[in-house]
Amino acid sequence: MNVLGVYRCCHAFAPGMIARGGGRIVNVASGSAYLPPQAGGGSTTYGATKAAVHRFSELLAASLRDKNVFVFSISPGLVQTEMTSGFPDDLPWTPPECAPALVLALASGEFDALAGRYLHAEHDPPDELRKRIDEIQEQDLNVIRLRR
């Protein structure tokens, strides 16, 4: 459902955004998309589908940028929720207000230059992103890439 739900929402809403002259899409991926297997925990399905969400978002961002539609994928971080209720208390928990603050900033249009990038709610707060936009673009950061 991780990939299919994202695909269906984007497929449903992107045409209207294009017709209105633009918009922003923020998809929810996960740190499990890029963490090594021993660090990512969880099931193989979860990590693989969240990686697919990010890659889909990156490719969709590239195809819609010239139509003034900007697509992002974010990790909300490790937030204490019902889904994480069985996790140990000593994990690096992300404050729950981080993800909404990042989504609001992305929706504002201020960070359209970073469309297609993978952003983490706690590690990429809006104040830090403002300082790092050029660096992120120049060094091709916040992407999942095969490097040889």
Overview features:
single chain; 45% helix; 148 residues; mainly alpha
Would you mind describing this structure in some detail?
With 148 residues, the chain is mostly helical. 45% of the residues lie in helices and 11% in strands. It has helices at residues 2-19, 37-40, 44-64, 98-107, 126-138; strands at residues 23-28, 69-75, 118-120. It has a three-stranded parallel sheet, with helices on both faces. α4 links the parallel β2 and β3. α1 (2-19) packs parallel to α3 (44-64). It is globular and about 45 Å long. It starts with a helix and ends in a 10-residue tail after the last helix. The model has no long low-confidence stretch (mean pLDDT 93).
Oligomer: single chain
Helix content: 40-55%
Alpha-carbon distance between the termini? 32 Å
Number of strands: 3
What is the approximate shape? globular
Strand content: 5-15%
Q: What does the secondary structure layout of this molecule look like, with pairings?
A:
Blueprint: H1 2-19, E1 23-28, H2 37-40, H3 44-64, E2 69-75, H4 98-107, E3 118-120, H5 126-138
Parallel strand pairs: 1-2, 2-3
Helix pairs in contact: 1-3
Please give a quick description of this structure.
With 148 residues, the protein is mainly α. The termini are far apart.
